[in-house]
């Protein structure tokens, strides 16, 4: 597809119409592209486990994260409710010397490694499948497409597209680099891996590796490599189940229009029905894939079944 930098409204409307999945799985659908990930594909994906080595793809959930308070997104606050000190001082009131520790965490659901649910983004007041956003997500949460519906389904064939190593210099893409369909297909070809229906695609840009050397900086919301708006057709036509990146915002930043904010989200989530992941840690997995040449693996990345949530923290596990 072409991109007119001066016309985000027109380009978004054109892509939304061309790549809409509204009604594809019926009027009551709550899974979107996860419908592509069925039992048969999970059975096939299970055969990818050869060595039994596993990788956590989650960043840490702690106060040292990248969040700066944009739209009230903060880093997690971890508080102890009971401690070993309380036990040693006999303050817990338990009999026969029993003691324990307990804790609580307070955090936005999208402050670290996470999924964007189908209720996260709207297009001109419309939520996924053409629903009225005002009646879908209220102060009581997502009343229709809450992320809890996805909890049993996000497990299957994962595919790493290490664009940073394939296209970038020294394994990383610079901030502002727009990853096109050509970059994605070239990376898949160079790695000898296919991408197709029901896959959970992971795109490594290398930005997270850079922030670990240089500090968080503007990782949360600033300039970043990411998918070009022009990949909307590939996201739709490839029939993937989900996609995730190692960046804060999934798509390239600054965005490719003169005045815009996350236009690919506006097409991908409410119109395509695509599950999008952000801030995944792909470094250890990518190093292993480069070493053994195997870029497909079993992946489970279930969201927490938080009733009515429009996103969820996750600890994705890749197994090879």
Could you walk me through the main structural features you see in this protein, from its secondary elements to its overall organization?
By secondary structure, this protein is an alpha/beta fold. It folds into two domains: about 10-70 and about 110-320, Putative cyclase (Glucose Oxidase, domain 1, 3-Layer(bba) Sandwich), CATH 3.50.30; about 75-105, no CATH class. Helix content is about 25%, strand content about 20%. It is built from ten helices and 17 strands. It has helices at about 10-20, 40-45, 85-90, 135, 165, 180-190, 205-215, 230-235, 265-270, 285-290; strands spanning about 55, 75-80, 100-105, 115, 125, 130, 135-140, 140, 155-160, 180, 200-205, 225, 240-245, 275-280, 295-300, 310-315, 315-320. The strands form five sheets. It has a nine-stranded mixed beta sheet. A two-stranded antiparallel ribbon has the order 2-3. A two-stranded antiparallel sheet has the order 5-6. A hairpin with a 3-residue loop joins strand 5 (about 125) and strand 6. Helix 1 (about 10-20) packs parallel to helix 9. The mean pLDDT is about 95.
- Terminal Cα separation, in Å? 36 Å
Q: What is the CATH superfamily label of the largest domain?
A: Putative cyclase
General shape: globular
Q: Indicate the low-confidence ranges by residue numbers.
A: none
Query: What helical percentage do the residues reach?
Result: 10-25%
CATH topology of the largest domain: Glucose Oxidase, domain 1
SSE order in H/E notation? HHEEHEEEEHEEEHEHEHEHEHEHEEE
Would you tell me the overall average pLDDT?
Answer: 97
- β-sheet strand percentage: 15-25%
Number of strands: 17
């Amino acid at each position: 597809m072409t991109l007119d930098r001066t016309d985000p409204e027109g380009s978004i409307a054109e892509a939304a119409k061309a790549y809409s999945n509204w009604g594809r799985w019926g009027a009551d659908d709550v899974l979107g592209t996860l419908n592509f990930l069925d039992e048969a594909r999970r059975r096939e994906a299970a055969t990818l486990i050869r060595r039994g080595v596993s990788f956590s793809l989650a960043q840490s959930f702690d106060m040292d994260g990248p969040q700066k308070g944009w739209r009230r997104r903060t880093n997690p606050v971890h508080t102890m409710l009971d401690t070993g000190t309380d036990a040693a001082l006999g303050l817990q009131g338990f009999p026969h010397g029993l003691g324990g520790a307990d804790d609580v965490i307070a955090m936005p659901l999208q402050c670290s490694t996470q999924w964007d649910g189908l209720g996260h983004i709207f297009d001109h007041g419309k939520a996924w499948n053409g629903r009225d956003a005002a009646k879908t997500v209220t102060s009581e949460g997502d009343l229709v497409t809450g992320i809890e519906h996805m909890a049993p389904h996000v497990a299957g064939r994962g595919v790493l597209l290490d664009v940073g190593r394939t296209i970038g210099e020294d394994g990383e893409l610079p901030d502002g680099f727009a990853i096109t369909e050509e970059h994605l297909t070239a990376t898949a070809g160079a790695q000898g891996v296919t991408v197709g229906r029901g896959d959970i695609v992971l795109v490594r840009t290398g930005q997270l590796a850079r922030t670990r050397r240089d500090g968080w900086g503007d990782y949360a919301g600033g300039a970043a490599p990411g998918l070009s708006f022009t990949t909307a057709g590939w996201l739709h036509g490839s029939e993937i189940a989900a996609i995730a990146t190692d960046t804060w915002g999934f798509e390239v930043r600054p965005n490719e229009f003169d005045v815009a904010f996350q236009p690919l989200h506006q097409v991908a989530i409410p119109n395509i029905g695509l599950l999008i992941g952000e801030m995944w840690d792909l470094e250890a997995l990518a190093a292993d894939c480069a070493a053994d040449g195997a870029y497909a693996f079993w992946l489970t990345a279930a969201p927490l079944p938080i009733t009515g949530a429009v996103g969820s923290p996750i600890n994705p596990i890749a197994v090879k």
